[in-house]
Write a structure and sequence with these properties.
14% of the residues lie in helices and 44% in strands. The chain has one helix at 3-21, and strands at 30-31, 40-48, 52-59, 64-71, 76-81, 87-90, 99-103, 108-116, 128-138. Strand 5 (76-81) and strand 6 (87-90) form a beta hairpin. The chain has one domain: Jelly Rolls (Sandwich), CATH 2.60.120. Strands 1-3-8-5-6 form a 5-stranded mixed sheet, with no helix packed on it. The chain has a 4-stranded antiparallel sheet with strand order 2-9-4-7, with no helix packed on it. The radius of gyration is 20 Å and the shape is globular. By secondary structure, it is mainly beta. Keywords: Signal.
Length: 140
């Protein structure tokens, strides 16, 4: 093989390899809108591979945030972050990984992120999973 051909193949391989290693495009959070007299709603989505699907929920200080996540596939979890970005709850370590209720310690946008937990035995790489998220914000 000629030297120029080998160089061109090597350069092309490096370019393709670097494109494959680039970080995935971040997913923009969807806002959850609650009607004035309706304290709950249902949102749904599809997880792809190891990605996270985030939702922003406006909550006032002292209100209770109730989350229920349903999926037909196992290994689907969610986390809740307060407005400062601190994780308040992660369902992966909970005995009831499909639900959580907590009181807002501060007002602002809480982030609820739904994700697939990878198992070393059964990795979910490339798999998709449909989920439904029930979100309720109450004053009591």
């Amino acid at each position: 093989m000629r030297r120029k051909t080998r160089f061109a193949l090597l350069a092309g391989g490096i370019l393709l390899g670097s494109a494959a290693l680039q970080a995935p495009t971040p997913v923009l959070a969807r806002s959850v809108h609650l009607a004035p007299n309706v304290p709950s709603t249902v949102v749904s989505g599809t997880l792809e591979g190891a990605g996270t699907v985030p939702f922003h929920v406006p909550v006032k200080e002292g209100q209770k945030l109730n989350i229920q996540c349903h999926s037909r596939k196992s290994g689907i979890y969610f986390f809740v972050k307060d407005p400062s970005g601190s994780v308040v709850y992660d369902s992966a370590g909970s005995p009831q990984p499909d639900r959580w209720t907590g009181e807002a310690s501060s007002a602002g946008l809480y982030t609820v992120g739904v994700y697939q937990k990878r198992s070393p035995i059964h990795p979910h790489k490339g798999q998709t999973a449909f989920f439904r998220l029930h979100v309720a914000v109450n004053n009591d």
